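Researcher: We plan to redesign the surface later, but first we want a full-length starting point. Tokens attached.
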């Protein structure tokens, strides 16, 4: 899963990019890979507080530009 955020939350209070700032000129990307369904379900609750980023399978990176593939 890849999520691109410019703010800290997405619809309904999902904090997938909890450190994003609207005024920093950067996009925050939340990348999740190789996570089995049971782990997804456990981490889903953590997304409401932004603690999902503590899982080693979750990477959050910043970029000032995006390219399509």
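Model: Full-length starting sequence:
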């Amino acid at each position: 899963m890849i999520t691109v955020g410019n703010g800290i939350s997405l619809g309904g209070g999902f904090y997938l990019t909890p450190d994003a700032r609207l005024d920093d000129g950067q996009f925050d990307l939340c990348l999740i890979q190789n996570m089995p369904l049971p782990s997804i379900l456990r981490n889903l609750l953590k997304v409401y507080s932004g603690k999902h980023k503590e899982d080693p399978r979750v990477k959050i990176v910043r970029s000032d530009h995006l390219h399509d593939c």
